[in-house]
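2024-03-11 09:14:02 INFO receiving multi-entity request
2024-03-11 09:14:02 INFO entity count = two
2024-03-11 09:14:03 INFO echoing inputs for audit
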Amino acid sequence: MDIVLIGAGNVATQLAKTFQKKNISIRQIYSRTLENAQKLAEEVNSSFTNNLAEIDRQADVYFYAVKDIVLEEIIRKINIREGLHIHTAGSIPISVFDGFAEKYGVFYPLQTFSKTREIDFTHIPIFIEGNSLVSEQQIFQLAHLLCDKIFIASSEQRQLIHLSAVFACNFSNHMFNIANEIVAQAGFSFEILKPLIDETVQKLNDMTPFEAQTGPAVRNDENVIQKHLSLLANRPELANIYKIISEHISKTYSKQ
Amino acid sequence: MDIVLIGAGNVATQLAKTFQKKNISIRQIYSRTLENAQKLAEEVNSSFTNNLAEIDRQADVYFYAVKDIVLEEIIRKINIREGLHIHTAGSIPISVFDGFAEKYGVFYPLQTFSKTREIDFTHIPIFIEGNSLVSEQQIFQLAHLLCDKIFIASSEQRQLIHLSAVFACNFSNHMFNIANEIVAQAGFSFEILKPLIDETVQKLNDMTPFEAQTGPAVRNDENVIQKHLSLLANRPELANIYKIISEHISKTYSKQ
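2024-03-11 09:21:47 INFO inference complete, emitting structure
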């Protein structure tokens, strides 16, 4: 199986390394930035290009792991009808390939990727979709070489999954970042928060996040909430975030 | 050393069990609700009462683990000047004891407590404060029986630490709860989000939360943000939370 990988960012990097570990060769890597294509290609023994016109037209699989905003344009410019075309974007519908290929679909790994942290795909949930049964089966077989948690999801489902991931990962991480700023103000390092953050997540093995909720908002402790808001008086944007999330917690539990 | 424990909630329960494990006997447990006092007392072989007038006046240490809102009133009503008086509240200053005792202070464990999950205090950061060097040393010695990460923190520092914990734990957990609602809407279980949440936290061993940020807001991907907001059109409060946190992420990184 010959794979062309389009992209050299966080997702593409982790995909390339995983393919290599599984002895699946990548024929070519494309990135708009030649240095990025070259760097990743060297790591996985592949050829590389930054020219869409040079992309190998004989590959079996074209894997698109590029920013959402450029995906459509790249598909249009590559314009190779043969092979199986797969994108990895949570919020782009499968129809982005309509009219540009015969066999296509989606392989969406639900994970947060960085270039530097190696990701083991084995237990990452992968959401796949194909434009036909044949495409879907081929994507399934390919996914199955990398991981053991594969789900079929429509473009509508995948969009919701992506949205939920923004809350579960991106927004929770931003909460950690705000917490880090505030402990620094108190003269302490982020290290002191780690046992708390670990336990916050460990609890979810025993109970739902709904059951796990603690803190002033869920017990309607207006005294503490007002003290905290006054501590944030000189950070009006943080005070606003504090207020709106607290109100939403309070409302979520008053419905019970 | 004779300890009276005032409270039978989440923190009091975990404290009582930890004292017992360390062979420190609890003489008496008070709770407003007799059943709660009795239940915890039976677990740790202590006497119990729901009557503040019956609280043992000969104890060495009085540990207050009650809701912030009732702490001041309980201190006033107990009115025992002897012994070492210690509260466990993040946001209540040490001065709450002024005029009610000679030796007093604070023992604030930075953790999220539930009655059902046993907490190992050993590596939990504890923030202590005493009204005198003698009080502080006694609180330190007591804390040292339970754990190995003890920090001296003023009431002002402790308030900020508590505020940061609300972001790090309470608000991140609420993000997990919202994510759970949204994956359910897509027809999937919370289980699919766990590898993502685990990795979100694991990353913090390698990088700061500032460096770990991913997602549409940090890369200013307006397309995805608008799609997500339209998915939340029938949930205006969630759309508002999404918008405000995304704007704050975007602003945090545009300062760079």
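2024-03-11 09:21:48 INFO post-check: The domain at 159-254 of chain B is CATH 1.10.1040.20 (N-(1-d-carboxylethyl)-l-norvaline Dehydrogenase; domain 2).
2024-03-11 09:21:48 INFO post-check: Chain B touches chain A through 96 residues (CB under 8 Å).
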